[in-house]
Design brief:
About 20% of the residues lie in helices and about 30% in strands. By secondary structure, the chain is α+β, with helices and mostly antiparallel strands. It has three domains: about 210 residues, Distorted Sandwich (Beta-galactosidase, Chain A, domain 5), CATH 2.70.98; about 220 residues, Aldolase class I (TIM Barrel), CATH 3.20.20; about 90 residues, Immunoglobulin-like, CATH 2.60.40.1180. The radius of gyration is 27 Å and the shape is globular. Keywords: Glycosidase, Hydrolase.
Length: about 700
C-alpha cells in the first residue's frame, strides 16, 4: 500500500511509493519545503536529510531559489515563482500560514495528503495536494486556491507544483520540440545555469513543445542511471520553468497558462490547477518511460485494457471528395484487409468541398449522402467493422451558416482583424452556450448514426483571444475553454459509453495527460511518412504509451515528403503503435492487398504486446544501424522485436541487440522460424537481427516462452 506518514516532532511528511520516497516539511516561517526525492527512506532517515538552512551568504541571496514545494512571490525570494497574486488593495506576495492537514484514501490503493495554508493577512487559502498509488512510483500533485474574502483577487501565476532535485555534479534536460508534421523531436541537452522556459502560448498543448521534462545528472543512458521526470495534465497553454542555480541545485515548476495571462478569483471562488505528476526512477530513460506508460494505463486512460481495433481512415484516399458510393467501396476493401474500425474523414458535411467553407455546419451533405449517414454506418457495421467520423467541433469557417448566424461566437477582439489560419476561426468554447451547442449536435450525431468512434480534430492555435462583453473575459477564457472542452467530452461519453475518441490537433498538437484522461488515443502527427515516423514515435514514447499512439500505413510516394518505402517497412513502423491504414485501397494492386491482409493478421497476433506490454528501446534512431524496439509481456511469457533499417552501408554495424523483460533461464521460440533462444543469451549477448539486404529493411520477431517440458 502507498504510505503517507508524519513525524510531528520534526514536522516531516514522508510519501512512500513502491520504490521511492518523497519527503517535505513545514519550516519555521510556515513555508512547505522539500527534503528528499529518491530511494525509499524511513522517517528517521528523512530527518537526517532535513538540514536547517544556513545563514545567508550575503544580503544579495535571500532564500534559496530551489527547495520549496511551491515558491511564492514574496519575501526574499528571487527565483521563478510558482504562485503570484495581487489582492484588491494592490498588495502583492503571499506569506504562508499553516492551518491544517488531512490524509485520506480517495480510491482503493491510493492515499492523498492535503496541506492547508492561508495568507497571514489576506483571505486567500492555498491547499497543496499529493497523491500516491500502491502500484506506481508516480506522485500526483496539484494546488487549490480559494478566495475566502469579499473582494476579488487576481492570480497572476498559479503553478500546479514545483519539484526539487538533489545536488548533482551536473544536470541534463530532456524534452521534445518540433512543429506541424515534425512533432516530438527528442532533445537531451546540458541544463544551462539560469532559467529554461518551455511553454505553449497557443491555447493548445502545441506541436512545438510538450508539457513534460526529464532531468538526470548527465550520465543516464537508456538502461542505466537515475532520472527525475514530470508531466502536466493540461490541454491548453502551459509553462514549465527549469532552473539551475549557481550553488549547484536544480528544480522546475509548471502549470497552466503563459506569461501575460491571469486568473480572476471572485469572492468565494475556487481555482484548481491541473495535475503535475512526477516520478523518480533508477534504470535510465527506459525505466522512466515504462513507469509513465504503466501509470497512464493504470490511472489515466478511461479504457486502458481494451484492445484497440485496426483502423482505416479515408482522408489520404479521398481528401474532400467524400460521398456514399466511394466510402462504400473503400469500406468493402478495408474489410477484406481485416480492418475493424472504418473512419470517414473531413468532407462529409455541409458545403465542405475544400477547407474554405462549411466548417461548423454539421449536417451530412445532402448531395453526397442523400439519405444521411445511417445507410453507410449500417453497411460498415454489416461488414463487421465499427463506424467512425472526423469532427472539428471547436472551429468554424467564415463561409458557413453557423458563422453568418453567430459571428460573436468566435474568439475575437473588437476593432482587431480576425486572423484566419487554415481559413478558419476558433469558436469560444469558454462560452457555455457554445459548449452546449457543440455537445447538443455531437450527441445527436452519435446517436442517430450509430457512431462508435470520433476523430476529434483542432486545426489552429488561438489568436485575438478575446471575449467581448466580459471585463475579465480575456483572462478567464484560457482556462475555462479547456474545462468546457473537457466537459463536452465527458458529457458525450456519459451519453454513449460505447463511444471511443481520438485526440487530434493537426497531428500532435494536443497530446497530454489531461486529454488522455478522457480520450482513448492520440494522433501523433499528420506526417505519415514511415521514415519520419520512427523519430516522431521515438519522442512520443518517452512519456506516452503505445496504447495511445495511432499510426497509419499510407500510400507512396508519401503525400508530404514524396518518399517511397516498401509496404512491409510502412507496416512494421505502424505496428509499433495502434495500427491504422490510410491509403487509397481502390488503387492497391491485388498483391499489395494480399500482403497487407497478411501483415494486419500478423499485427493482431502481437498487438496485445504492443498495446499492453513493456517497451524497451534497444537501439534508438541514428544515422547508422537499425532502430530497434521490444515490447515484452509483463510476465515474461513473450516478446515482440521490431527493427527498421533506413539505409545500409556496406561494412556498417550489424551487431546483435540485447533484449529486456525476459524470464531468466527460460527459452523462447521464434514463431516464424521455429528457432529456440535462451533468455540468458538474448539478455546478456543479444539477438542477431535477420534483416533482409538493401535499404528500407525491417523485421518483426515474435518470441514465445517455452514450457519447461517443451524440447528444443
Amino acid at each position: 500500500m502507498p504510505v503517507i506518514s508524519h513525524a510531528p516532532d520534526t514536522g516531516i511528511w514522508l510519501l512512500s511509493t513502491p520504490r521511492t520516497s518523497y519527503a517535505l516539511r513545514i519550516d519555521a516561517t510556515g513555508a512547505p519545503c522539500h527534503i528528499a526525492w529518491g530511494p525509499r527512506l524511513t522517517l528517521e532517515e528523512a530527518a537526517e536529510l532535513a538540514v536547517p538552512a544556513g545563514p545567508d551568504a550575503s544580503s544579495f541571496e535571500g532564500r534559496p531559489p530551489v527547495g520549496e514545494e511551491l515558491p511564492v512571490d514574496g519575501g526574499a525570494r528571487f527565483g521563478p515563482p510558482s504562485l503570484q497574486v495581487r489582492f484588491a488593495d494592490g498588495t502583492r506576495a503571499f506569506e504562508w500560514r499553516p492551518v491544517g492537514h488531512d490524509v485520506h484514501e480517495p480510491a482503493p490503493g491510493a492515499a492523498e495528503l492535503s496541506l492547508r495554508f492561508r495568507d497571514r493577512v489576506h483571505p486567500l487559502e492555498v491547499t497543496l495536494r499529493y497523491r500516491v498509488h500502491e502500484d506506481s512510483d508516480v506522485i500526483e500533485r496539484h494546488t487549490v486556491l480559494r478566495n475566502a474574502g469579499d473582494r476579488g483577487i487576481t492570480v497572476l501565476r498559479a503553478d500546479s507544483a514545483a519539484w526539487s532535485l538533489p545536488p548533482l555534479p551536473d544536470y541534463r534536460l530532456s524534452h521534445v520540440t518540433g512543429q506541424w508534421s515534425a512533432e516530438s523531436q527528442l532533445r537531451r541537452d546540458r541544463l544551462p545555469y539560469g532559467e529554461t522556459v518551455l511553454t505553449s502560448r497557443r491555447g493548445i498543448t502545441s506541436h512545438h513543445a510538450n508539457p513534460w521534462v526529464m532531468l538526470d545528472a548527465g550520465d543516464a543512458t537508456e538502461t542505466h542511471g537515475r532520472v527525475w521526470s514530470a508531466a502536466l495534465a493540461w490541454s491548453g497553454s502551459w509553462r514549465i520553468t527549469a532552473q539551475r542555480t549557481p550553488d549547484g541545485r536544480a528544480g522546475f515548476t509548471g502549470g497552466a497558462g503563459h506569461d501575460g495571462t491571469s486568473v480572476p478569483l471572485a469572492p468565494g471562488e475556487e481555482f484548481t490547477t491541473p495535475g503535475f505528476a512526477a516520478v523518480c526512477t533508477d534504470g535510465g530513460f527506459g525505466a522512466a518511460s515504462r513507469a509513465w506508460h504503466a501509470h497512464t494505463l493504470a490511472h489515466v486512460l478511461p479504457h486502458p485494457w481494451e484492445t484497440a481495433p485496426v483502423l482505416y481512415n479515408s482522408w489520404e484516399a479521398t481528401g474532400f471528395d467524400v460521398d456514399e458510393p466511394g466510402q462504400r467501396a473503400l469500406a468493402a476493401r478495408a474489410a477484406t484487409l481485416g480492418v475493424e474500425l472504418y473512419v470517414v474523414d473531413d468532407g462529409w458535411f455541409g458545403a465542405r468541398r475544400h477547407d474554405r467553407a462549411g466548417l461548423g455546419d454539421w449536417a451530412p451533405a445532402a448531395d453526397r449522402f442523400p439519405s444521411g449517414l445511417a445507410p453507410l454506418s449500417d453497411e460498415v457495421h454489416r461488414l463487421g467493422m465499427r463506424f467512425g467520423l472526423w469532427v472539428e467541433p471547436e472551429m468554424v469557417n467564415p463561409d458557413s451558416d453557423l458563422y453568418r448566424e453567430h459571428p460573436d461566437w468566435v474568439l475575437h477582439v473588437p476593432d482587431r482583424t480576425r486572423t484566419e489560419l487554415r481559413n478558419q476561426l476558433v469558436l469560444n468554447f469558454a462560452r457555455q452556450d457554445v459548449a452546449d451547442w457543440a455537445y447538443d449536435w455531437l450527441t445527436r450525431l452519435v446517436a442517430k448514426n450509430g457512431v462508435d468512434f470520433l476523430k476529434w480534430d483542432m486545426n489552429r492555435a488561438f489568436s485575438e483571444a478575446g471575449w467581448p462583453g466580459r471585463d475579465d473575459g480575456a483572462d478567464r477564457l484560457w482556462t475555462r475553454y479547456v474545462h468546457n472542452l473537457y466537459g463536452v467530452i465527458d458529457r458525450l461519453r456519459a451519453d454513449h459509453p460505447q463511444l471511443r475518441i481520438e485526440s487530434c490537433s493537426g497531428g500532435g498538437g494536443r497530446v497530454d495527460l489531461g486529454i488522455l484522461s478522457r480520450t482513448d488515443q492520440a494522433w501523433p502527427s499528420d506526417n505519415t511518412d514511415a521514415a519520419d515516423r520512427v523519430a516522431i514515435q521515438h519522442g512520443y514514447g518517452q512519456v506516452y504509451p503505445a496504447r495511445t499512439m495511432a499510426a497509419w500505413v499510407t500510400d507512396v510516394p508519401n503525400q508530404l515528403t514524396h518518399r517511397t518505402v516498401p509496404l512491409r517497412f510502412r507496416f512494421h513502423v505502424a505496428m509499433a503503435g495502434l495500427l491504422g491504414i490510410g491509403g487509397d485501397l481502390t488503387r492497391w494492386p491485388e498483391e499489395e492487398l494480399a500482403e497487407g491482409a497478411e501483415l494486419v493478421a500478423g499485427y493482431k497476433r502481437v498487438r496485445h504486446l504492443v498495446q499492453h506490454g513493456a517497451l524497451h528501446r534497444l537501439r534508438g534512431p541514428g544515422d547508422e544501424g537499425p532502430t530497434v524496439v521490444e515490447y515484452a509481456a509483463h510476465d515474461g511469457s513473450e516478446a515482440l522485436v521490431l527493427a527498421w533499417q533506413r539505409v545500409q552501408r556496406h561494412g556498417g554495424p550489424r551487431g546483435p541487440v540485447r533484449l529486456g523483460g525476459l524470464t531468466p533461464g527460460a527459452r523462447y521460440r521464434d514463431t516464424r522460424t521455429g528457432t529456440v533462444h535462451h533468455a540468458t543469451v538474448l539478455d546478456g549477448y543479444g539477438l542477431s537481427l535477420d534483416l533482409p539486404p538493401g535499404d528500407w529493411a525491417s523485421s518483426a520477431v515474435h518470441l514465445v516462452r517455452l514450457a519447461e517440458r517443451d524440447g528444443a
